[in-house]
Amino acid sequence: MSGSSTSVSTAANLSSSEAIVAADFGRTADGVLTQLYTLRNAQGLQVSITSYGGTITQLLVPDKAGTLSDIVLGFDHLDGYQSPTYTKAGPYFGALIGRYGNRIAGGRFQLNGHKYSLAANNNGNALHGGVHGFDKVVWQAEPGVSAEGPTLRLRYRSPDGEEGYPGNLDVTVVYTLTHDNTLRIEYSATTDQPTPVNLTNHTYFNLALGSSADVLSHEIQLAADRYTVVGENQIPTGELRPVAGTPFDFTTPQPIGSRIAQVPGGYDHNWVLRPATKLRSAASVYEPTTGRTLDVETTEPGVQFYTGNFLDGSLTGKAGIVYGKHAGFCLETQHFPDSPNQPAFPNTILEPGQTLASTTVYRFGVRSAEQEA
């Protein structure tokens, strides 16, 4: 963290054990000052989010001994997120992703008879909003308070034509750190022209960060019976294949590393969540040495489970930790990849007069020795 910090909460609107603190986080390459906002709840959980990319830079949660420590990959200073090495690697640590999370084949789609070309920034395909996606913009930030706990509201207007996408898109993202140790992310958006939208967050978790160099021993369960089969360069073929009898079957808890060798390149796929009309379970994760647990719920139809396959040790993050292969995992709640070119997939086209509304929650806990037995 750089610069001086300032409390932006008062005793009238937060309990004495809760807080929101703002601090300068550095200037972007073009001179824009960014801020870092740290939210703390009554249990001591703490999340830091910067206005640069809406990025989660730190998340402190307790282990089974009650010790708070950081469980997400990232950097202490803005410079880390703008270095040439980071830009080349493109891991999107902790960032908000848009306009379109995941891949669009060939960087092209057709809408209402018009052909649109996007930045082909990933093996000839469009990935995570393009060269200058939502992860690289400075959001307008407004810290506040809700009945559930401290909040950070972020706003950004994506102008018509940005990265090739049509229409002015107004996006609001609200982070809430609740009293019951949940980080809730609420997304909303409106547009003045039809446009594809797929918003998500790209946090890398390691529930034993600092004591385990990878996440292969984490046990994960996904509430999905099918996944989207991909072909060349991770573009979906259109097939939704049952996970039964494959290394993609996480309908019961499995160590991440138990079958990863059977998946060329590692896990970087979209799982099709079981249908629901409201917030429902997407994933549950357990780390045996710390006892930490992570439960994810979402209103989205899919989740991209990614195992940090492209991390190669070239990036050194907080506390001098080198991020090697599989140093973290992502659970990116989302609509499916390449949906604008896949008519059978859930619709991602936002129309004028509509409001996109999406919620994802990350709930943190610990599993006791008795529960482990």
Features:
373 residues, mainly beta, nine-stranded antiparallel beta sheet
Characterize the structure shown.
The protein is mainly beta and 373 residues long. It is built from three helices and 30 strands. The strands form eight sheets. Strands 12-13-14-15-30-24-23-18-21 form a nine-stranded antiparallel sheet, with no helix packed on it. Strands 1-2-3-4-5-6 form a six-stranded antiparallel sheet, with no helix packed on it. It has a five-stranded antiparallel sheet with strand order 20-19-22-25-28, with no helix packed on it. A hairpin with a 2-residue loop joins strand 12 and strand 13. The longest helix has 6 residues. It starts with a strand and ends with a helix. The relative contact order is 0.16.
**Helix segment count?**
3
Shape field: globular
| Alpha-carbon Rg, integer | 20 Å
Strand content range: 35-45%
**Overall number of strands:** 30
The SS-based structural class is: mainly beta
Q: Which segments are poorly predicted (pLDDT under 50) over 5 or more consecutive residues?
A: none
> Helicity level, as a percent range?
under 10%
Averaged pLDDT, please? 94
Major β-sheet annotation: 9 strands, antiparallel
Calculate the terminal CA-CA distance, rounded to whole Å.
41 Å
Strand neighbour order, sheet with most strands = 12-13-14-15-30-24-23-18-21
Write the layout of secondary structure elements.
Blueprint: E1 5-7, E2 19-27, E3 33-40, E4 46-50, E5 55-62, E6 68-70, H1 78-82, H2 84-89, E7 96-97, E8 103-104, E9 108-111, E10 114-117, E11 126-127, E12 140-146, E13 149-158, E14 169-177, E15 182-191, E16 195-196, E17 200-201, E18 219-222, E19 224-230, E20 236-242, E21 254-255, E22 268-273, E23 280-286, E24 292-298, E25 302-306, E26 315-316, E27 322-323, E28 330-334, E29 349-350, E30 356-366, H3 369-372
Antiparallel strand pairs: 1-2, 2-3, 3-4, 4-5, 5-6, 7-17, 8-11, 9-10, 12-13, 13-14, 14-15, 15-30, 16-29, 18-21, 18-23, 19-20, 19-22, 22-25, 23-24, 24-30, 25-28, 26-27
